[in-house]
Predict the 3D structure of the following.
Amino acid sequence: MNIIKVSANSRTAAVAGAIAGVMREHRFAEVQSIGAGAVNQAIKAVILAKGYLINDGIDIICVPQFVDVDIDGKVRTAIKLTVTPRGEDTAPTPEEKPEEEETLETTE
Amino acid sequence: MNIIKVSANSRTAAVAGAIAGVMREHRFAEVQSIGAGAVNQAIKAVILAKGYLINDGIDIICVPQFVDVDIDGKVRTAIKLTVTPRGEDTAPTPEEKPEEEETLETTE
């Protein structure tokens, strides 16, 4: 699973670049964030990525959902944004699903 | 324009109810928030609304964008989430566009 993890300190341009790269390759991306600051950065990154990708003819939409994640042995509720091209909004089949994981914890 | 305005203190269930109501009536909703706390409440409300609406056969997606808004004479950048049914993701024509405005500034 290729999950782009975003923190409150993630640079939006870096996250947007990651989303755009994953979308160009897989036409599907997952962006995960925990906490208001991280969710805000994630949404801003999706807006930037939308601008990058429109030039490639990919018009993205997103679907948010809650997911429980294990952080240092504690269960926390994260918000996952599933990003897909408009009108093609289905998850890839498991075989097509990317395997890498990217974490963007760089500071602004 | 029916814009659902969300603050950091908005109750997510109340906002979700508003989104669900507007979606049932117009199949189109706009949710506007300024600041990380408000954006976080808005996204959580969309997730809750998605749960409410799936029971009505409406599977929602959202598209975020930046919008400049005038707050007490100062221009601020808000995040607007355009909510539509999946696969029907186009804005209504101006005549179809709802006219009312709802503001949810209630505290948790």
Q: What stands out?
A: Chain B is about 30% helix and 35% strand. The interface with chain A takes residues 8, 35-37, 39-40, 43-44, 46-47, 50, 60-66, 79, 86-87, 89 of chain B (CB under 8 Å). The radius of gyration of chain B is 13 Å.
